[in-house]
Specification:
Elements (H helix, E strand, L loop, with lengths): L5 H9 L7 H14 L1 H17 L1 E2 L6 E2 L5 H4 L4 E8 L2 H10 L4 E5 L17 H9 L32 E4 L5 H13 L6 E4 L15 H9 L3
Helix pairs in contact: 1-2, 2-3
Length: 223
C-alpha cells in the first residue's frame, strides 16, 4: 500500500469541514504551506488544544473547558427561563441579540429520522432530567444534589433552580419543527410553560417580496 503524502493527508483532513470539497481543501492547504506556515502551526496547535480540552457543560450541554460553562455560572441570568437550541452557533446568535437573559440547553443536533438521528442521538433525555430536577446553586461553583433526585440521576444534570418556562428555539426547518414538537409533547403534564419562537415578517421587508408561508405564520401569530 502506497504511503500517503503529508500534503494529501492535510487535504483529506480539511475536507472533513462542512461544505469543503477537494478544490477548496487544496486551496487552503496550498495557502497555508506557501504563504502562512506560522498560521498553519497555530491552527494545528489550536485544533489540538480544543480537541483535548473542550467538553460539554454538565448543565446546558454546550461547549466549555470547565464542568459548568460561564453562562450557567452567571448569577445575573434568569434561571426560570430555559431556551432550547440546536447548536452552540444558535446559542451564540441568541446571545448577540442581547434580548435574552435566561439560561440555555444545547441539543447538539436535531431529530432527523431519514438520517437515522433519533431522540437518543441528541440531548433530549438530559434536557428532561434538567427540567425535572431541582437543586441549589449557592456559590456559583458547586451544584448540590436535591433530595428529590432519584439515586441513579446525576446531580450535575440538575438545573440551578426550578425552570418555569421552556422556550423552543430550534430552527424552522422540517427537522427543527419535528424536534420542537417532540419536546413540547414530552413536556405536557410537567409544571412548565412551553413556548416557541414566533415566526413573522422580517423587519424592513415588503410584503410583496415575502414568501407566502412566512406571511401566513405572521398572520396566525399576530398580536
Amino acid at each position: 500500500m502506497a504511503e500517503i503524502h503529508s500534503l494529501e493527508l492535510l487535504v483529506q483532513a480539511l475536507r472533513r469541514l462542512p461544505g469543503v470539497g477537494v478544490k477548496s481543501a487544496q486551496r487552503m492547504a496550498f495557502h497555508l504551506l506557501q504563504h502562512d506556515r506560522e498560521g498553519a502551526v497555530q491552527l494545528a496547535q489550536a485544533l489540538q488544544h480544543a480537541a483535548f480540552n473542550v467538553k460539554h457543560c454538565v448543565l446546558c450541554h454546550t461547549f466549555t473547558e470547565d464542568d459548568i460553562c460561564p453562562t450557567c455560572r452567571d448569577p445575573r441570568r434568569d434561571r426560570r427561563l430555559l431556551c432550547v437550541v440546536e447548536s452552540p452557533a444558535d446559542q451564540a446568535a441568541m446571545e448577540r441579540t442581547g434580548a435574552y437573559k435566561g439560561l440555555y440547553f444545547v441539543l447538539m443536533g436535531k431529530l432527523s429520522p431519514l438520517d437515522g438521528v433519533g431522540p437518543r442521538d441528541i440531548g433530549l433525555q438530559k434536557l428532561f432530567d434538567r427540567i425535572d430536577a431541582v437543586t441549589s446553586f449557592p456559590d456559583g461553583n458547586a451544584v448540590e444534589e436535591d433530595a428529590a433526585l432519584e439515586p441513579e440521576q446525576d446531580a450535575s444534570l440538575a438545573p440551578t433552580c426550578e425552570v418555569r418556562e421552556v422556550i423552543l428555539a430550534t430552527n424552522f426547518t422540517a427537522e427543527g419543527e419535528t424536534t420542537a414538537h417532540v419536546i413540547a409533547q414530552a413536556l405536557k403534564g410537567r409544571p412548565v410553560q412551553v413556548t416557541r419562537l414566533a415566526r413573522g415578517v422580517p423587519v424592513g421587508s415588503e410584503l410583496e417580496y415575502v414568501d407566502l408561508g412566512t406571511i401566513a405564520h405572521a398572520l396566525a401569530d399576530r398580536r
